Amino acid sequence: MNVGVLRFRNDSLSETFEIYRGNKDFNKIGQIVSVNGQPSVTNWFGEACNKVAGSYDESLLQPFLTRDSFLNVYGSDLCTTTPMSVESTTSFKGIDCLKFTPNERFLGSVVDFPENYCYCPGSIEKITLGQSCMRTGAMEFAACQAVPVVLTFPHFYKASRYYQNAVDGLSPDSDTHQSYVSLEPTTGIPINGAKRIQINFQLKGTPAMKMTGKARDLLMPFLWIDEKVELGDDQLSMIKDTLLKMLKIANIAQWVLIAIGILMVLVGSIMSFISARREHGHPD
């Protein structure tokens, strides 16, 4: 009997990604065109949840980011994209970064985000069946990896009070339980990040059984995972001492060339004015 909750992670990833190189539109560099030759996966119950084309792989993200930037990041483990927005500016070992975190639509309920209907088991073309949808902060995972569990953030961080109040001993905290990635904004290079997820079992009352007929439906935490990654000192030095310096020099050179161009226009105008005065014999 195969009972491993994380057995799907024992094998190497076999997905083949096609991405934009940015030759025709540099703003699309790194965007996913297809996964295994298809613009969408087939795990969920509607195109909005299955679509991966136009999103980004976790290791190659969009350059030239600003505080208003928004990213859809595809993760093979979740079989879907994670919408991420800028939470704050930060710095890591001397490199200025933008800190992206999953926004409210990720694990959002269909009450607040109707477009999330397709994460509800049994949904058909925007019609959800019965009580198949989870409350805020939870997602049934069986459609992704054929494992009968529910995903949340650790300690039910940002989840419905319904889930939080059913379990004792929780202390949800953004610093400890929030997933994030810090990106160097000019290049889009991931500098550091953390993927934090909690695996839960869904317990439901069974009316046919007297002992559990009136039991409250709840999520029982099983384990939570905290995966962290950061660039090493050698990679950080290369980014700071080579790449960012070159970009800074290029930026300065751009303004220098603009200044030289303006100066040449001014000099040309002055020379034309002086030449015109001489031709018309204006006295000094």
Automatic annotation (TrEMBL):
Q: What InterPro entries would the database entry show? A: CD36_fam
Chief location of this protein within or outside the cell:
membrane
Listed under GO cellular component are: cytoplasm; plasma membrane
UniProt keyword terms in alphabetical order: Cell membrane, Disulfide bond, Glycoprotein, Membrane, Olfaction, Receptor, Sensory transduction, Transmembrane, Transmembrane helix
List the molecular function annotations (GO) for this entry.
scavenger receptor activity
Please provide the Gene Ontology terms (biological process) for this protein.
sensory perception of smell
Give TM regions: 252-274
What subcellular locations does the record give?
A: Cell membrane
In which domain of life is the source organism classified?
Eukaryota
Question: PANTHER family under this entry?
Answer: SCAVENGER RECEPTOR CLASS B TYPE-1 SR-B1, SENSORY NEURON MEMBRANE PROTEIN 2
- State the family named in the UniProt similarity comment for this chain: Belongs to the CD36 family.
The identity of this protein, by name, is Sensory neuron membrane protein 2
Q: Which gene encodes it?
A: snmp2_3
